[in-house]
Structures
1.
Amino acid sequence: MTGAQFDVVAIGNAIVDIIGRCDDGFLERHGASKGIMNLVDTDRVATLYSAMGPGIEISGGSAANTAAGIASLGGRAAFIGKVAEDEFGCIFRHDIRAAGVAFNTPAVAGERATSRSLILVTPDGQRTMNTFLGISTELDQGEVDPAVIQNANIVYLEGYLFDRDEAKAAFRQAVDIANKAGRRVALTLSDAFCVNRHRAEFLQLIRSGIGILFANESEILSLYETENFEEAARRVAQDTPLAVLTRSEKGSLIISNGERVEVAAEPISKVVDTTGAGDLYAAGFLFGLALDYDLAAAGRLGSFAAAEIIGQIGARSEVKLSNLARIRGFIG
Amino acid sequence: MTGAQFDVVAIGNAIVDIIGRCDDGFLERHGASKGIMNLVDTDRVATLYSAMGPGIEISGGSAANTAAGIASLGGRAAFIGKVAEDEFGCIFRHDIRAAGVAFNTPAVAGERATSRSLILVTPDGQRTMNTFLGISTELDQGEVDPAVIQNANIVYLEGYLFDRDEAKAAFRQAVDIANKAGRRVALTLSDAFCVNRHRAEFLQLIRSGIGILFANESEILSLYETENFEEAARRVAQDTPLAVLTRSEKGSLIISNGERVEVAAEPISKVVDTTGAGDLYAAGFLFGLALDYDLAAAGRLGSFAAAEIIGQIGARSEVKLSNLARIRGFIG
């Protein structure tokens, strides 16, 4: 994997997170399903925001977090995603560039606002997302810069983008460009309910143009409509050359061309906020591939990055992960 | 002090903080004076923002932080300050109300934006503020609600508001209303350079209508144009019935009608970010007065609240201070 300008280009929703703390009773009273991503409309986002406690704003977005994580680890990352010309759009653009990620999708003026997610963190550190998908889902084909795709070793796609047709088309276009340029395409399923909404299309995409699939346990079970993890693992092995299945404290299982590699989870001293754990695992794993690590070493780098972000609020590491990874021996 | 609806009404700049980390070299390269509040214009705020690392957004503003701190300790607080009808204005309004502070100053539509402060935190935990004073300094007399002032035991004023004439007039009006209603008026000098800009007017105000003066060491030295702390302490004792002088790790000195009370600083295990330390000391001290504590006990509550906020990012406590204060025996 040489000659490319970027290790990874990520394509996904450009979102600013508004993170607050609440107890489980708050989630129940407001009908927010715990631990998942709930899509909410403008009225609902207003109701939840006025009911929740004080918040802090931190840039987020699943694939964007992965891009920022790769840059923090010392990799070369780019991001494609859509923001509006508003204050949250400025925050998103500033933060991802300041994190060292190339980002040049133009901001759009008009009625629709930059996407935001109210993230409610319960005392157990679990995060419940309530996402108002503003302009980010309107990413269209004109905004997928072919030059960026062609110049990245891996194109990484966020399943959440499947929630709108315009973005889905942009997504398919990116896969085509990458395949024609001989680049690898990675996909994360994002969320079990997202999988449920788009199962057939995801399966078709995985079987045709995807080289690396990321999924957590509930997502892969949802994809194959089974409650048996081993069955899901067996089936995904037939559908994709490289599947990376994350299982929280049970670690991760990497399956590639008949080889199965189990990676233990990193010990976590204090679960502060699980926001971004999956995104940062993907960052570590993809950067491991960029470093030509074997699957086990790439998985360990993913587990390390996930554990670090679980100890922080938000999904963007406040400290440079490359320094920590070096001290801990995960990178040279 | 009974019969009032609020323990304290605070009047000050309504600001959203954008907090990022940097090293000392960054401050030098950009000519930002370390440890103080630098007033910056729109061009400068844009330059600094694009040069600084990723940020997180948290509501701030000195007097607003004090009001939020009082509410967090279990007190009854109100805030008067001006925001624009923009996204940062929404954030400020949401957060202060969610913190339990009464806030009803109407947001204003138009060209001017809600005030913001780029806060750069160096590895030693010191904070350097670069404040873009948007609409908050345009607070005018119509926005000082006499009913709120009359219904608060103490009116707490932020010296920063002296930087604009409109706000200064609103400030004087609040002092008049409070004095006529027999309420106590407290003032914080805010910043040594702010004192330098308005020394004569501050002295006149302190000698006429202020019952409680808060100042840190550099502010009180600036006020009396001396380098001798004992001389400044002697002089302030002649100018005001109650002076509260904070001295960082040296603790605080409270001087009231000939009585001198020294309070030790609370031990701090890890200096994360000193943003809000003075604001939270004032919150603890003022809430101590509301609880009819003697000066030493009020000072200890102030030191406790300051120490807690130094261990967190930003100036708004993520945890309810009343619980901690109860566990630690500072409140009953």
2.
Amino acid sequence: MSEHWVGVDVGGTKVLAVRIDEAGDVEATATRPMPGRAAGAEAVEEAVALAARDVYGARPPRALGVSAAGLVDADGERFLFGAHLPWRDTPLRRRLAERTGRPVVVDNDANCAAHAELLAGAARGVRSALLITIGTGIGGAVVLDGRVVRGAHGLAGEFGHVQVVPDGLACECGLRGCWEQYCSGRALERVTRVALGRHLDGPEVTALALAGDEVALQSFASIGTWLGVGAAGLVSAFDPELVVVGGGVSAVGDLLLGPARTAMRGSLQGTAYRPVPELVPARLGPEAGAIGAALLARDGRS
Amino acid sequence: MSEHWVGVDVGGTKVLAVRIDEAGDVEATATRPMPGRAAGAEAVEEAVALAARDVYGARPPRALGVSAAGLVDADGERFLFGAHLPWRDTPLRRRLAERTGRPVVVDNDANCAAHAELLAGAARGVRSALLITIGTGIGGAVVLDGRVVRGAHGLAGEFGHVQVVPDGLACECGLRGCWEQYCSGRALERVTRVALGRHLDGPEVTALALAGDEVALQSFASIGTWLGVGAAGLVSAFDPELVVVGGGVSAVGDLLLGPARTAMRGSLQGTAYRPVPELVPARLGPEAGAIGAALLARDGRS
């Protein structure tokens, strides 16, 4: 009988599980609501286990991969800190392995998505790339020499909390002016609320934008411009071949990426004299994190 | 007879040459004024050749390394763009080899300084580090796995033109709000001029600060704080073991690095849960670029 693996992505608003086969193809998906940071670690761990079980099928997977938005230590044992998640220096791998009775691999959500995009998505065959995932917040990953760079302590690619506005908007992480305050699902909702005078959630703003609504288009132009400005800074620092943009908010496509491309080019020095990398959508969509977690469970965490 | 090599660093205000022996020790140094961007390419190339000749000693060096502030292409043939330098997509390596009659190696100034600090300075034995050089502007280099990372097109580490203030101060590169407008020798002079109502150059501000002058100390605190804020963003992105700060402005030591350390820690998310890298002075001082260029001439450009 063929083997399978399960990947679970723990985001700010939902817990998404996928099951993949030996070839990496997705066989099943399931979604559970994210109980939220305030619900505490136990509740979120139970949601992870339940979402995973939703896609087990006839029998448990060989191993389980978990993708989570925040700082994971270099060997994947501990979840150190995430603004939207309840864990603080928690031995998450062991806790989830005990709860599920399966071998577990834990990694940062953007590292998982980058692994998936590298193996099977927009960055296939690329030697150096940046991955920027826009969901509730911003995640990031760096690919150099065809591999995800972990950094000295496993924390490379934490782009969301780079300051882009001095004394700017307060962030859940405790700082001010973080990039994800200006470019994220929450930023999209805030910008829209300010313009409309009432609250719409991200999918509602996306639907309006796709229908041509001016306010919604303007909201995407705002966060897209901030995407491009921030991406330009990262391009100056890393000089990648390619910038890949994923995460739920990127599902709107060029309504976000068009303004981002314009702003990225406009915020890079010497563009008449230097190559400007392409900025392209992630190919695996909002499931990239979960798929990458499952692939890491299959391949082992490098 | 023993061999020697010459390195020349072309900065915004001066051209500095050093001669090294086979062990990498400095045997002679010389300085010429930088004619300035407006003087044109020929004039600056002549200054490079003259500064080099000042340290030839009894006979020409085996090879010449040139360190310059700006974008150098991946194979070190062309100088693409630098805000303070006259060259635009210029085949600089060939031109200088023809002018001097010696084999020439060209690299970005911060890459040169990083090479020197890695081999013989503050980053000796370190696997991952960021080098930030503060002179007329800001240069940068990234070390991963014990080697200087070049990026897809040889342009990695261009930190100076990352935007830190939206719609901020106009920069010579044509953009606004670039980091080096807030943290550089020119920023030091501007901040001091605003406070004092008259112009002092960088070395004068440094002398005053070392003598305890309040205005000068405040100027260094300002650019040091911006150093820390920008460094925090880079630490979030790269997660290095160490941040090394070099360049002429860093000669003032802790008067700059103290405020930078405070601001870096204050601008990093989750510092209660993550390691914060040390921020240390470069060990080779303002000559690091020239020494690194000479070492690259000796070792070959990787």
